[in-house]
Amino acid sequence: MDRKNIPLPFTGILLAVSALESVGILSEFSVFLSKYFTNVHSFAAILGVFSAVIDNVPLVAGVIKMYPTNIYPTDHSFWELLAFTAGTGGSLLVIGSAAGVAIMNSAKLDFFWYLKKITPLALIGYLCGIGAYLIQRLM
Question: Around Cβ 30, how many Cβ atoms within 10 Å?
Fold first, then answer.
């Protein structure tokens, strides 16, 4: 593979996330959040926003360690909402997903352009998705 084709910002983000996970900062952060957000659905929504900065794989891995299946079974609504929020929350910022980093690199998109033009729309979709999920769970 030609070195010019490797998206260096993406590599840097993965290295930074891996470093945060290795030193235990992601787990400590999860514990901190769960202390102040006792409602698991609001906690899942907050985690989704953080997946715009922190890669969703280590973020969800930390949450899985924090909430074993004897607390929330695998079919609990918390896991369903977390799957939605962690997966779609990465679109809130262009650096939050591999696809965003790739398009930023290939189309030469500016981070601040994305923040101004796309983030508000992505946030509306994100919040509407959470709302639609919660309405379905209540019915």
Answer: 21
Residue linked to tokens 């983000």: 13
What single-letter DSSP state applies at residue 90?
G
What does the domain layout of the chain look like in residue ranges? 3-138
Whole-structure pTM value: 0.74
Q: What's the pLDDT tens digit per position in 37-63?
A: 888 888 899 989 988 987 777 777 777
Q: Assess whether pLDDT exceeds 70 at residue 8.
A: no
Nearest CA to 84 out of 135, 46, 129, 26 is that of 129
Q: What is the mean pLDDT of the chain?
A: 83
User: How far is residue 41 from each of residues 77, 82, 106, measured CA to CA in Å?
Assistant: 8, 8, 36
What's the 3-state SS for 25-86?
Answer: HHHHHHHHHHHHCCCHHHHHHHHHHHCCCCCHHHHHHHHHHHCCCCCCCCCCHHHHHHHHHH
Residue 107 CA to residue 101 CA, distance in Å, equals 10
* 36 φ/ψ angles, rounded to the nearest 5 degrees: -100, -15
**Cα–Cα distance for residue pair 24/122, rounded to 1 Å:** 30
Task: Say which residues have a Cβ less than 8 Å from residue 115's Cβ, sequence separation at least 6.
Answer: 93, 94
